């Protein structure tokens, strides 16, 4: 009898546990269904918002948001499509340069030997630069008591990148690549309404700049390209020149007021040499805040120079990919700047770069290097009618394509990475920018 009672008791307990398990399973199913429903509703809200936005009409729009603290995807809308990244490819270039050099960029390599000072380039782009130069390299060379010998370092890449538009060649943003950039590989032409002549820098290009003045403008001819510069107010024009070792020598001799001799690469370069480096963040800031194409291209060349004598863009890209095999498997990158129409990437891949950069930089680094929305750099007047400044990001723009990728901080200061791309749009870029920031404003209100 006791045995029967025990058996019945065990049966009832089993049935009770079974019912509890079933109720638990139902609760879990209800919970997951609720989560799925919320996700579907959020996705539908995004789709409706995009569909209602006139600036997005007919365009291929993608939106991704990632919670960097919880390591969790919050929004993923068409994030696996391939897009033309434009200048957001500079995020990849920045990652490669930062991994290699951290916050100490090599500016110059040198050897002192028997009363001679031999120096050669690292590919560093800011020597005597018209916008960013700090004078460190020129001052260092001027302090040398020995005779100066310049050792040319070859570049085995074309001066213009693969897939660059031929009609961009005459603009300052398409400065040609070289192994020893000087003055940003740009001719600087300056007008002054109180003077009748133009000033040209470096001065060695004075005879290369032809011009005539009418009532309002200077009509300028440089390297078969035509330009106009204001004559009734101060104005500046930047024109690319074709770089050469001869130009480097002439500019350096003019700045240092001392003769510089050319030396061929010799066995001593295989010995231990010294490097002049800078801890100033100017190059990185110019890359991300001002989207400087020539600096981006130079950083890739510098990367290649860490493993071989010749500087080569493709070798720089190969090193970058080797160090980030999984991260870059979905990225087809052919240049450092994003000028090329051959670059191809998915928003998911850009998100991967943003997560990696956040791990490298943290919040302080993000705010130090990236431009702030409606406040600095290329984002200074991005969407001035919308008051949102807790965004630090990199924009990218080519004809009919615009992307904004970076970091959004919620009201509680939680960091999120985001990518919003608008490919094949037919509206004005400014309208597309406004629409992108509207989406960010909506997203910020929903993020914790």
Structural features, described:
- With 448 residues, the protein is an alpha+beta fold.
- The chain has a domain at 49-85 and 345-446: Beta-lactamase (3-Layer(aba) Sandwich).
- The protein is 34% helix and 22% strand.
- The protein has helices at residues 2-52, 90-101, 136-142, 245-256, 282-288, 293-304, 313-323, 347-369, 429-446; strands spanning 60-67, 72-77, 105-113, 116-121, 147-150, 186-191, 199-201, 210-213, 217-222, 225-230, 235-240, 260-262, 274-278, 391-398, 401-409, 415-423.
- The strands form four sheets. Strands 2-1-16-15-14 form a five-stranded antiparallel β-sheet. It has a five-stranded mixed β-sheet with strand order 12-5-4-3-13.
- Helix 2 (90-101) packs across helix 6, helix 2 (90-101) packs across helix 7 (313-323) and helix 6 packs across helix 7.
- Mean pLDDT is 90; it is low at 31-39.
What structural keywords apply?
448 residues, five-stranded mixed sheet, Beta-lactamase, alpha+beta, 16 strands, five-stranded antiparallel sheet, 34% helix
Low-confidence spans: 31-39
Query: Strand arrangement, largest sheet?
Result: 2-1-16-15-14
- Number of β-strand runs: 16
CA-based shape: globular
Largest sheet: 5 strands, antiparallel
Number of helices: 9
Please indicate the percent range of residues in DSSP E strands (runs of 2 or more). Answer: 15-25%
The assigned CATH architecture of the domain at 49-85 and 345-446 is 3-Layer(aba) Sandwich
The ordered H/E elements are: HEEHEEHEEEEEEEHEEHHHHEEEH
Q: Report the C-alpha radius of gyration, rounded.
A: 28 Å
- Give the rounded overall mean pLDDT: 90
- CATH homologous superfamily placement of the domain at 49-85 and 345-446: DD-peptidase/beta-lactamase superfamily
CATH level 3 topology of the domain at 49-85 and 345-446: Beta-lactamase
Give the fraction of residues assigned to helices. Answer: 25-40%
What is the top-level CATH class of the domain at 49-85 and 345-446?
Alpha Beta
Q: Give the structural class.
A: alpha+beta
